[in-house]
Amino acid sequence: MSFPPNSPTFVSKNEFLEYLDTYVFHFDVNPLYQRVVESAFFDNVDGKWHIKAMNVERNIVENYVVRFLVVATGENSEGFVPRIEGLNEFGGKIMHSIEYGNGKSFKKKDVLVVGCGNSGMEIAYDLANWGAQTSIVARSSDDGAIFDENGMPKKRSSCHWKGEKGIYCVGFASAGLFGISSDAKNISEDINRILMHVDNKMNEISSSSN
Ligand SMILES: Cc1cc2nc3c(=O)[nH]c(=O)nc-3n(C[C@H](O)[C@H](O)[C@H](O)COP(=O)(O)OP(=O)(O)OC[C@H]3O[C@@H](n4cnc5c(N)ncnc54)[C@H](O)[C@@H]3O)c2cc1C
């Protein structure tokens, strides 16, 4: 679903939320919130995925049995602090981007942002706006071996979104929202194709048995 034609190139937070609300309404999506998926396994007997999810609101475990499973847990859901020599001896505050709210408490302080992905760039920009003395470091030594001249990974598989036995993943192509949208379309078309094939087979079986 496209953004309204008069939308700016970079939509505001509120416009984006509005888009999500319209999307949910348009496609009649009914997400279940406050669930943390704890496990999923494929049962060869019934040919379905069995999922255990914790309902954190009610503190109970819920079970779901489904034919298709789409994993869309994000590439950056959990914070990871790499082991850096000398980090333990550093006397200042160390913070992962996942803990960052805003730069208010960093005013006039020296801050080094490590890494210049989406989070690093936006945090550095926010810190500078709050009056911090901000520096940013970017790893560049081996980027040339991994990325092409456009800054995209050289190794791309056209079917990275599809696993076996009806499992799929969205959002792991390092291609932002565009990649996610493309994965989602590929997956819905693939599931549709499979379901149509099953329907056709069922029709063939029922017409041959009549
Ligand atoms: C600061 C920043 C700025 C960005 N700016 C842009 C931009 O301008 N343009 C752009 O295209 N992209 C941008 N991106 C990237 C974009 O936000 C991500 O690519 C996108 O949000 C990923 O969406 P996703 O649905 O794959 O994952 P997420 O948005 O990470 O969603 C994953 C969801 O899965 C949930 N989850 C994880 N594990 C479980 C579990 N076990 N059970 C249940 N739920 C679970 C998480 O709670 C989360 O809600 C930006 C990212 C950051 C961090």
Model description:
By secondary structure, the chain is an alpha/beta fold. It has 4 helices and 7 strands, in the order αβββββαβαβα. The protein has helices spanning 13-26, 118-129, 143-146, 176-209, and strands spanning 35-43, 48-55, 60-66, 69-71, 110-114, 133-137, 167-169. β1 (35-43) and β2 (48-55) form a beta hairpin. The protein is elongated and about 80 Å long. It starts with 12 loop residues before the first helix and ends with a helix. The structure holds flavin-adenine dinucleotide. Residues 35-37, 72-74, 76-77, 118-119, 122, 170-171, 176-177, 180 line the site of flavin-adenine dinucleotide.
Report the major sheet: 3 strands, antiparallel
Tell me the helix content.
25-40%
Structural class: alpha/beta
Strand content: 15-25%
Continuous helix count: 4
How far do the termini sit from each other?
Answer: 43 Å
Shape: elongated
Cofactors, ions and other ligands in the entry:
flavin-adenine dinucleotide
Q: Round the mean pLDDT to the nearest integer and report it.
A: 85
Widest beta sheet: strand line-up? 1-2-3
Order of helices and strands: HEEEEEHEHEH
Q: How many strand segments?
A: 7
Contiguous runs where pLDDT drops below 50 for at least 5 residues: 141-148, 151-155
Give Rg in angstroms: 23 Å
Offer a few descriptive terms.
binds flavin-adenine dinucleotide, alpha/beta, single chain, two-stranded parallel ribbon, 210 residues
Brief rundown of the structure:
Helices cover 30% and strands 19% of the residues.
Task: Annotate the secondary structure layout.
Blueprint: H1 13-26, E1 35-43, E2 48-55, E3 60-66, E4 69-71, E5 110-114, H2 118-129, E6 133-137, H3 143-146, E7 167-169, H4 176-209
Parallel strand pairs: 4-7, 5-6
Antiparallel strand pairs: 1-2, 2-3
